[in-house]
């Protein structure tokens, strides 16, 4: 097959003396792969290993497929690795669908074999019609360009790479190849069922499209390669955007960045960076994420409200607090109500580990925003350290009249999620003396008597 060898050279799928694992099920595609690589073996100096999986889905039939592949490997004097996996039980354990569970177990086995023999390549018999089916399914399921890419010709896997040298062919080419070389493929009856989405596309959609364009498989493969090249460039640039984003914890972690800085980037890079963030936090982007979530996110960036949040699948929360954007899986825990009594000479600990201490003396000089001094004769002791309450007001230094604590938070652009846990200090009469580290009250500093109370906040 001249087309295949040219395809292999174009994409640099093989190197001299590679160790190649052939994924063989016994069907026409993988049987053609086995025979073709056996013919190519001496030309490239390849070491070939055959790997096959019985998924326990068709009883004796799938076991016979495994035995058949084993016998072929023996006949052609190739090393063989085979296994039987329990897909039905794995489905129950994980809640996966049949196809996803089978693929997970199959690839797990292939990775083990690759690492054991230190293989360079894992070859599959996927062909151009498979590629067309895959891309059509991706078009149907998602409006996100990132989701439409087809199967890569080559990608990293385990100790080496997965390669798909038959993507330049259509199914009929492989059927004819098997007939020309008197190969006897096994037949999987589940391929005729239309209960599975892929089979439905194969039986109902693809024939119609191929009638309009007999070279559909080539058209879709070129499109896949172009998508891959274009997306690779955009992703490289989007990764540069991530340099301005705080990312910690990997899967299940969090990210934080400036809305203003993020929106200076071209919209295409913003979109790609958004999906890279999701890949980072989810481990790989999940099917529940759709273009709707993308639209929700960009609406969050553009809306006028300074504080807002979104709930994404699997507990991911996107929070906007003024210019600050955060993605986090940390659920908002019920904060215990802060209410502590503070006497002269004592210190109290706050929920975040910081402390507040109270001393008395003759010095009225304040040392910055974490130090607060008031006249002892104008307050009722002991002092109270607590969270804000609805209706809280305070008289600010240099201001006539009082102001709502709520309005102070808004003026100072304090994120909404921090306001309810922000500590404030009052006296026994409820006079708000200090919104800790933020604003100081004036009511107890007029007409001082000479004895001063000092509150000190330490992080």
From TrEMBL:
The keyword Cell inner membrane does not apply. Residues 383-455 form the Lysidine-tRNA(Ile) synthetase C-terminal domain. Its main location: cytoplasm. One of its GO terms (biological process) is tRNA modification. Its EC number is 6.3.4.19. Keywords: ATP-binding, Cytoplasm, Ligase, Nucleotide-binding, tRNA processing. Belongs to the tRNA(Ile)-lysidine synthase family. Ligates lysine onto the cytidine present at position 34 of the AUA codon-specific tRNA(Ile) that contains the anticodon CAU, in an ATP-dependent manner. Cytidine is converted to lysidine, thus changing the amino acid specificity of the tRNA from methionine to isoleucine. PANTHER family: TRNA(ILE)-LYSIDINE SYNTHASE-RELATED. This is tRNA(Ile)-lysidine synthase. The gene is tilS.
